[in-house]
Amino acid sequence: MTFEEGLAAWLPRQRWFAGKGTPIDDVTIVSDTVLVDAEPGLRHLIVAVSQGGGADRYQVLAGLRAAIPDELKHAVIGPAGHGLTAYDGLYDPHLTRRLLQAMAGQETIGPVRFAVEPETMIDTSLDSLVLTSEQSNTSLLFGENGILKVFRRPSPGPNPDLEVPRALARLGSRHVAPPLGWVETTMDGRATVLAVLSTYLRSAADGWSLAATSVRDLYAGQSARAAEAGGDFAPEAHRLGEATAEVHRDLAEAFGTDELPVAAHQELAEQMQGRLDTAVIAVPALVPY
Asked: Which pTM value belongs to this model?
């Protein structure tokens, strides 16, 4: 089995792979950069996957070892030649520290560029833990200080996951995690963000989780009133609304505002109607609503 054949078998099993259910026609490594030339090793790959007449590009950080320890066997990709086995290097804290080191040193390794925000100190000694909640990307928690979001399907051009928090942080926004650094390359002649390291907000909670907990507590109790059940979401909803309004004001200051023309409103409405039609076909019970 070649390395590319191993990738073709491994990719569809990943939750972030977009082409599930469609046969893979071809896998081509279009960029291969050695980040760690040792044992274990680390290669940064951009992989083009052809399916059904189209192609997507994925980012893979492949670890390389002669012998895979038990804790990394779940991440094995396949044979990589020269007696080495490839695996998803993002699950190996020994290798992910190299990403922090390169970022702190603002290194450029081949086409891969590492950058850090001005006057930012990055602790390069921290071990990483892959979070399991991500669906389309992979996020690594470094200690309790930072979280690295790795974009599995990098897209050329400005990335809102970097541009928006940077702009809001410069305005002193209290409601965003300030970015600490990032990794980028060039694709199709344009700067392309590969990963963003942000401050980890340990005490943060998202509004959906708060609302879901409120409903759970209400149904679990005997009272018909949310306040009596201890699950009243109204105060949290009010604070969430205030935070949202504040962020929107900061966004307007950072990026300016514009008014959509009539044609754009019509296009947006047609898109929404199209999604509704699709949903109704899939779930006919929605028709009365």
From this structure: 0.83
Could you tell me which residues come within 8 angstroms of residue 246 by beta carbon, excluding any fewer than 6 positions away?
173, 174, 175
Contact 68, 77 (CB under 8 A): no
Report the C-alpha gap between 151 and 136 in whole angstroms: 8
Measured between alpha carbons, how far is 277 from 262 in angstroms, rounded to an integer? 23
* 202 CB-contact burial (10 Å; exposed 0-12 / middle 13-18 / buried 19+): exposed
Tokens of 150: 């790795």
Looking at domain 94-199, which of 1.10.10, 3.40.50, 3.30.1460, 3.30.200 is its CATH number? Answer: 3.30.200
Strand segments (E) across 37-175: 41-51, 54-65, 76-81, 84-88, 108-109, 112-116, 128-130, 138-142, 146-150
pLDDT category, 174, cuts 50, 70, 90?
A: confident
Q: Tell me the pLDDT tens digit for each residue of 123-154.
A: 999 999 999 877 899 999 999 889 999 999 99
Could you tell me which of 94, 49, 57, 56 has the C-alpha nearest to residue 75?
94
Q: Which amino acid is at 239?
A: R
Q: Is the pLDDT of residue 210 over 80?
A: no
Domain boundaries, the chain: 3-89, 94-199, 207-277
Report d(CA 237, CA 224) in Å as an integer.
19
